[in-house]
Amino acid sequence: MNIQLPPAQPPLQQWVIEANTLNLQGEHRLLYELLRNFHNFNREQCAKLRDEGYSSLSDLVNWKYKDIRSLLENLSNRPTTRGGQQFGDRRIKELQALSWYLTDRYRRGLSFDLDLYRQEATAYISFAEIDSEIKGRSSGQTRKI
What we know:
Number of domains: 1
Shape: globular
Distance between the termini: 77 Å
Number of strands: 0
Number of helices: 8
Radius of gyration: 18 Å
Helix content: 55-70%
């Protein structure tokens, strides 16, 4: 008797295992995948963002550039025993870029095309910085050097 076995499945990526364990679905799963698999946020950074109320793509819409930096710098300066979590400058800029991209797409009535985001992620960091500079100037704020 000859038994045919189905082809072996590739092992699941770590972020998939974690997302399944957390029972993440829809936008929550998409955000987790972007942060863990594309931007290389660690599990603790993702958990801290969820704890702070940022667990889905829609949660990032209209999150202000300066508020993102302020929250993540405050979390980085807080001891881990008091709920702190380290976010470096690069992680902050990546989250600012993602928030800017999602907000821009939302305001223009466009879908959250994550493939487009992945292709141009570095450019969105610059777009978010430029937009913040323009808004800062129009509100009378100046950038500290």
